[in-house]
Specification:
By secondary structure, this protein is of the alpha/beta class. It has a single domain, classed as 3-Layer(aba) Sandwich (Rossmann fold). About 35% of the residues lie in helices and about 25% in strands. It is built from seven helices and nine strands, in the order βββαβαβαααβαβαββ. Strands 5-6-7-3-8-9 form a six-stranded mixed sheet, sandwiched between helices. A hairpin with a 2-residue loop joins strand 8 and strand 9. The longest helix has 18 residues. The protein binds adenosine-5'-triphosphate.
């Protein structure tokens, strides 16, 4: 069973004056442990695609199957549960809560459903160690650098062992050296755990680090490698 199956995905937005078609017949299959980068010009629909794959928005047409589940056929509460259990997100601006410690931020996906089990707490500790921040667990996000905050976001995105990890411009505000550190974690940790990772980025360098590279062009996904990006 593939980790992700997208068939004939379409998305358009309606306004009073017109209908804007953003995605038209997007097809994609990914296996466990695979990582994929998607590039494309501003406004071509990259974030829209990630939001749909993350079940935060819905397609106008087409079929999406994540780890054997068709999320858009589920009730709203079942989709929310599925999203929380099966999908991880990493955003450009990390979305950490400033008043919570690093440890609490990593545990945030678990706190939504009550007091985390000792197993989940141990998992958070391990992930914080994996991203090299064990000394900073009691610090607040404001006490960390941008790159360190993004490492926390990587750890948090992985807490629930997601089947699908979605990263939208994860190194957008970072310098090259920090981008390299984040890239190492981003492409290594999910692969070790069998998550399928999709990274949307404007950085050609980051895109080229992914095992598989695609471009969103004319509302469709096309395979591209190196210079063809
Ligand atoms: N809710 C919405 N209503 C109407 N149009 C929308 C909506 N959301 C996105 N769009 C349009 O869809 C298109 C794709 O937007 P999207 O944010 O997916 O692009 P992107 O490739 O991620 O861009 P960037 O690289 O600049 O972040 C844009 O033209 C945008 O204006």
């Amino acid at each position: 069973m593939s980790r992700l199956n997208v068939n004939g995905l379409c998305k358009s937005f309606n306004s009073a004056a017109e209908t804007i078609s953003v995605l038209d017949n997007v097809n994609l299959t990914m296996e466990a442990g695979e990582n994929l980068s998607i590039v494309g010009p501003s406004g071509c629909g990259k974030s829209t695609l990630l939001y749909i794959l993350g079940t935060l928005d819905f397609p106008t047409a087409g079929r999406v199957e994540i780890d054997g589940v068709e999320p858009f056929g589920l009730s709203a509460s079942a989709v929310a549960k599925f999203r929380n259990e099966s999908i991880g997100f990493i955003f450009q601006d990390h979305h950490l809560l400033p008043q919570l410690t690093i440890s609490e931020n990593v545990l945030l996906p678990a706190l939504a459903s009550g007091v985390p089990s000792s197993e989940v707490v141990a998992r958070a500790e391990q992930l914080i160690a994996d991203v090299g921040l064990s000394e900073r667990v009691h610090h607040l996000p404001g006490q960390l650098s941008g790159g360190e905050r993004q490492r926390v976001a990587v750890a948090r995105g992985l807490l629930h062992r997601p089947k699908l990890l979605l990263a939208d411009e994860p190194t957008g505000n970072l310098d090259r050296a920090t981008t390299e550190t984040i890239a190492e974690l981003l492409f290594d940790l999910p692969r070790r755990e069998g998550a399928a990772l999709i990274v949307v980025t404007h950085s050609t360098w980051l895109a080229e680090q992914a095992g598989r590279q695609m471009r969103l062009e004319n509302r469709q996904l096309v395979e591209g490698q190196g210079a063809n990006l």
